[in-house]
Amino acid sequence: MAPPASETAAVVDGGDGQQQRQAGGFGQTITGIIRIAVFCYFASKFFSPKQKPSDPSKPSHLMSNLFQRGEPMDMWFYLSEHEKFNDFGNEGALIWHETNIPYAVWKPESTRTLSMTYYPSEALKNNGSLYAHVFFARSGYPIDPSDPEYQPLNCFGRTHPVATYLPKRKADKKKSLLGNPKDSDESNVEVEEVDGKDSDLKDEGPVEWVSYWKPNVTINLVDDFTRYPQHGVPPNIDPYLLVEPSTVNYYPTVFFNEFWLLRDKLILINETVSELPLNLEVSPISMTKWQLFQQIDQSFQIHRSYGSMLDGESDELKRVFLEGNPYLLGVTMFVSMLHSVFDFLAFKNDIQFWNKNKSMEGLSAKSVVLNFICQFIIFLYLLDNDTSWMILASSGVGVCIEFWKIGKAMRIEVDRSGMIPRLRFHDRESYASNKTKEYDDIAIKFLSYVLLLLVVGFSIYSLAYERHKSWYSWILSSLTSCVYMFGFIMMCPQLFINYKLKSVAHLPWRQMTYKFLNTIIDDLFAFVIKMPMLHRLSVFRDDVIFLIYLYQRWVYPVDKTRVNEFGFGGEDESVDTKKISDQEDDKKTN
């Protein structure tokens, strides 16, 4: 079934309604959201669209609000399966009626609420539609056009779908690769509940739509008394503005606020549903808040159209604001900014170190190769799981940088002797001509035994108890999980080399300092964010490695004769300085 039309604005005299465009979607980052929202808001305020040249013989008209501030209004709330409503005498369709609601006045009596239970009809259970028809009128005036006292200038209304249509979720493609019957039964049940299909896991055919119930309907009356030019209404306000034709003035703007309505709060409507909760609210909203909601929705829609976020991430961002402590949220945003700054500084110093490095003495070349393999595995895993292109691009850049580091740690040659050119890697002389290569080989040898046992053990566990899309996905997910869980072991060869050489002067300490600060921030998040205990303990693994590095820096004194990361030694500089001073003394004596 096709998705329903957008909201419909209708004057009570039975005229045709205006279709209302509603922007949706959410973006990726809070900073981008606020920046785009504020920019669009002020742009709409100060930069109205260019007006067409008016006829000098006709004076320009400014549209104003037909209602006054504080003017009491009555409200009628109807539910109907038809998009157009004129059955005002049907008491069964009237769900809610309120009187003497002051317009655009911020008082307790301006907010009215109602909680009830709605019993769906058979048509609604079978992908039917249901609309909310809300009408407002000056107190004492009717909304029924057939009433003798009816006056079109005194009443207005809006229509809004209460049952929305969303595409069916994709079938779960994961399955037990060993053919576990219990797991297969669970997979089939999940597919039937989510998609209503059998165990065929191929998402072929046209997109199917199912109806969902909106448990919350919030009706906001916008506090807007702006005098708009008749042909110069801002484009973000024009779709919501309901103009009365005879006076060319506008009715109060009715906004159905679904900003905080999360998708997981929607209720799937099917034959098994017997009753549905419905929470209603009518309240005022300021012009600034209404426009901010609109601009944030539009900014998120832009991010989603660019592919910078996936579906569902918008609700997660909303949930942070809904369920999070405001003080904790402020601290989290501040700490996240620090994390980003330290991450950038660590990245900059890492590139700077390897760009200027002239000697591999004391450095583990094989750890650089292993880091590249780990980054490449993570990139393939993200590619297999339909990750957004921004995260893929970031991971791809990381893979390229790790490969560039291999070129700085080793000598790469292209072998064109065969039909297919191949890359050959050779150790640099500064790495192979001393004990560094020997100690690195010993560390990697014993480390590979431990890592191999961990990878094989976890892969067998994952194959036996977890579901995967294919054997390729199983290999990728197993390797990626091992990288995340046991990746800290990659730092151990460097610890062994430091121990055997009794020196740490060759390490990029600036980069490691920034990474250590980031690790401390991760420790803070481990206490703040709710997570399993095992994952919380795993956050502190890097702390142990960095503490060992700090201990080695304290235990092993700085060797002035050792070549640093730039290929210079402290003793060489002192010798050159001594020669220069001796020559100056000879000149003075002569």
TrEMBL record:
Keywords: Membrane, Transmembrane, Transmembrane helix. It is a multi-pass membrane protein. The chain crosses the membrane at residues 327-347, 368-383, 389-407, 446-465, 471-492. InterPro entries: CLPTM1 (IPR008429). The keyword Transmembrane helix applies. Residues 1-23, 173-200, 571-590 are annotated as: Disordered. Residues 575-590 have a biased composition (Basic and acidic residues). Pfam families: CLPTM1. GO terms for cellular component: endomembrane system; membrane. It is found in: Membrane. Belongs to the CLPTM1 family. This is Cleft lip and palate transmembrane 1.
